[in-house]
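Quarterly update from the structural biology core.
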Amino acid sequence: MESQRSPTLEEAPVERGGPPRYKVAPPPAGAQRIRDLGDDEKPREKVLARGAGALSNAELLALFLRTGIPGSNAIDIGRQLLAGHGSLNDLARAPVESYQTLPGIGPAKAAELAAVFEIAARIASERIHRVTLDCPEAVYDLVGPSMAGLDREVIQTVLVNTRHRHLRTEEVAVGSVNECIAHPALILKPAVAHSAFGFFLVHNHPSGDPSPSAADRKITRRVQEAAESLEVRLVDHIIVGSAAEADVDAPYFSFREMDLL
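Predicted structure, tokenized:
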């Protein structure tokens, strides 16, 4: 009979968008079960003593996984899940089937993890709808972190009501690494369909430099003219970049702040 072995991540990189790949390896020497850890290292006891904020991402996942497999406790599996997907945010956005590519996670645990991430997303959505989007910083805080790391240009519209409260965010188009083309009618469609008072046009520059191109200036004028004809307000056009990569003052460019709207 073959000895039981635990899964570890392959050293080969995972293709972007593909499922994580795992291979089987011998269990590490001295691998501990969570029950054998000291009370100050057990996730449940740490939460009760110090609050959930004291836990690492892997330890939070371990609370839902509950059990491990021979050679890997629940914390180890949590670490491997995070390593296989890239980050907690990427894990939350991954299809539920991808969780089960790691031995030790079956349909029940995968479903529970998916439910936890959905609850978190709904809580975030409730909070977002209470936010007043009255400046480019607020819009950047809403969509910037998720758009800044994209490897191709994406156009989104952030819809608001008369009080500038967030209604919804719609992805309008996905382009290439340096271009994304969308007709003004396509950009305005979500605002018209959802009877929005106005909207923020937002797109990203994968290079990290949010400075507008000639094409960005042209589409802004065209969208503004089309919006006025439909009595929908283009509040601002915001380009998302990365201050760290582009060595600029802010990680975004606002057309309204620069008096270009």
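The chain is about 40% helix and 15% strand.
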